[in-house]
Amino acid sequence: MKKLILPLLLLIAFKNSSAQVLKGNVKDSEGNPIAFTFVKVTNQALGAKTDLQGNYQIKFPQSGNFQVVFSNLNYKTITKNIQITEGQEIIENITLEAEAKKVKGAIIRGVKNKESEQAILLEQKQAVVIQEKIGAEEMSKKGAGDAAAAVTKMAGVTKSEGGDNGSIFVRGLGDRYNSTTLNGLYMSSNNPEFKNISLDIFSTDIIQSVSVSKTFNGSLSGDFGGAAVNINTKEYLSKPFLTVNVGMGMNSQAVSNDNYGSGMNVFGFLKNNDNPDTKINVTEGNNVIYNPTGYRYTAAYDERIQWKKEKRNLPRINNEFGFTGGTSYKFKNNKTVLGVFGTFNHANKFTQNEGVSNDFRSDGEILVGTNKTQTALTASQNAMLNATLLIDQNHKLRFNSIWSNTSSDVVSSYLGRHNFNGNDIYVERSTQDNNSLLINQLLGNHKILDRLEIDWGVAYNTLNSNQPYRKTLYFNEFNRGEANNYRILSPNVGASNIYYQDFSDEVISARANGKLTLGKKENESTNPNAPKFNFGFEFTDKTRDFSALQYNYSVKTAAQNSNNVNENNIDQTMFGKDSFNAGAFDIRGQRENNGEVAPSTYSGNIQIFATTLGLDLKLNDKFSLSFGSKLEMINQNISYNVAAVPSGDVNRSDFEILPYVFAKYAINDKSNFKFGASKTYTLPQFKELAPFLYEDISTNNSFGNPHLYLSTNYNLDFKYEIFPTKNELYSITAFGKIIQNPINKAMVATVATGDFSYANTGDQAIVFGAEVEVKKNIFDQFETEKAFKSQLSTGVNLSVLYTHQDLNKDKVANENAAKDPRIEMPFTFTSSQLTGASPLILNADISYKFKYKKLEPTFTIVANYFMDKVYSLGVYSMNNIYEKGFITLDFISKLKISEKSNISLNVRNILNPDIDRYLNQNNMHLTASSFRRGIDFSIGYSYNIIK
Questions:
Q1: Are strands 743-747 and 756-760 parallel, antiparallel or unpaired?
Q2: Are the C-beta atoms of residues 658 and 536 closer than 8 Å to each other?
Q3: pLDDT per residue over 900-939, tens digit each?
Q4: CA diameter of the chain
Q5: What is the DSSP letter of 816?
Q6: Which of 227, 368, 493, 846 could share a disulfide with 170, CB 3.0–4.6 Å?
């Protein structure tokens, strides 16, 4: 052994003394250095990245003729053949030609353009893990105005229509199975009914890219079944710019019909509707009066409440305006750069739809059949301030502050028949919602000694969401169309009511992830094949407080039978102050505490402590392996005090060990084969555990189940991908999942009411399928010297899915009914597809653009289709309810008319399809609901004030 050491040392010394070096500088056409340019030697594991002064250096192990590629995502790539001479230093200075990318009228000249399609595909190609990402450039081309629209352009992703918070379904798995983060940090939902925040809150003005990870890795939450959606916010480190934009539009149905509601203006400000007095009326000494139904009398009467619905006086034209700007400052040391980016947008939108809404009993009979009309005004304001401090090429800090405020005023009218009691009915519900979200994040990235990389972040988020006013009015109807031919239907004390709801979330989250390159000594060049040790820590603390108060207007029998109520004058003829004083009706609260009406409440806290250990191995130039495990400790506590059930607590502690493994085999420079496997879990949410009854019109009510427990998921993926050019992709993915003890929402065994609840409904569910994706330039002349340049490109993705789950009514009864007799689910079938799982999803787009002098338009047609999917599970003899598949078609156009001005013209939902839910029962096709959204037309203009 000793005899070998000396020759080896001499060989190393000889090689070092005769090292050959390629070095130089990369600048733009104006002589400015270009930082972060990649310098790659073709077919060699050699490369470098330019520093802030544009300098690079590569050491070659031997002499020869090499092909060297200089690439930066803001500039045109250059390839040069360079002769490397033994023992010599070769200097090669390069000038790159700018290739600006236009996003929503602003020219982005950042240090590194992470928003372009080219950058996204390059990142996907180099990654070992399996994920999909869409950048701001592609979102703009395909007309995605927010994060929700962006993710539906990806394979296997659909969005629920007609309610459900616009929930995202990935590979057939809905809200419960997905997670949402902002820059890798947890966000809470803006709706207590759902786990995830509504993605349409995040407009593309603040988004750099949106990624959908369908396979679990150590950087993601273990509460993972379908996918983890991460929104990456913009950062800016370049020249000053300021862009203003205005737009207007209309919905074909909202403009052509009367639009009702008067509780909100176009800026989203709601009327003040504070809760009324809650003192109980004591009429017999000191004894509180009980009525036969168990509700308590209250003497409160609020003259601010107006029962008559009113037409909006506002012009029903959608409009939006906003501005986006950024600048940067380079410090005297020429290494440190401070960049600031900000945006503000306001938008409002009128919608209206008419259709059918039928509710079924659990035996399949129609309980309530109605024609439904719904009108709505929604308003939103979004603002973001981002500051990026690039200390040097190894250290970066970012601060994000995002504020989002959304308000809506919705009026729904139902006209039909209640078949259970044989009455004609007319129901009105007016609902006002307001959600205010504030997110503050501090993020950092550090490279230490070219060997250790640390990425960290901390966040504090607050969400205040409330329904300051919800009114439900329930009539019997006689002689339709004639005045004064209504009476109040009130065998149900709560049929006509006023409802108030408040909930708030407070979230503190932190993460720190590190990557340590092993087996490398100081003063040596980076070994691209060196193993890397991954480690991380995450902490999330989420607290929720929920409160709901309902006042039921209980009409006395004599008043019920009167036939002189005018729907347009209800405040005087039925629910006016004089009628109240005359004893025509009482106002009753559902709960009482110390002489006052008490709200139903629940509060919850969840703490998750997680640590990750993993290893990345590059065994050779073709084969890479990444594996590890995440350990999570979950503590979940809920306290509830609600009507109809005794108060109680839920306390759960779970410890999960979540292994994962990924492998990548680079078949050649343009194609990869990838594999991923992991174990994850699905956690019951606060709303699913708290037994509060969320009341909807008629029978679409749901309540939580404190006896739920988590599901365990096993995930497997295989992916083959080809990158023919820097802007093209062909890929096919096969995947499978096993879900143990899946959670479902289903109707409970109460034929008359048809309420819904949640349960672990079977032992196992399986999911498997395939996804195909194509991004192709049919022709591309933009890199030619022609005066007229054009490009035609297309993108298609297809998802085919099979799902199957066990349904076991005995399991549900054994685990729940003994503790809560309401929770029995006598399923019609012993198995079913997963709810929300469409067997086939197809997304396609085709885009044409050309450039002639200053004229540069882009025209895109976008189409989406999904096949029928299960909406809810059947019980007793009722079959499953399905959501019918449909096609959407959008036309998106953008026109650059000068260096500073851009125009957009969009037509969305061109086909205006019926959005149907149906039930096939007793050889009959029964409609559960049906409506159309209308066609949306919009035009926008943006102008670069500073460029």
A1: antiparallel
A2: no
A3: 888 999 999 999 999 999 988 888 888 888 999 999 999 9
A4: 113
A5: I
A6: 227
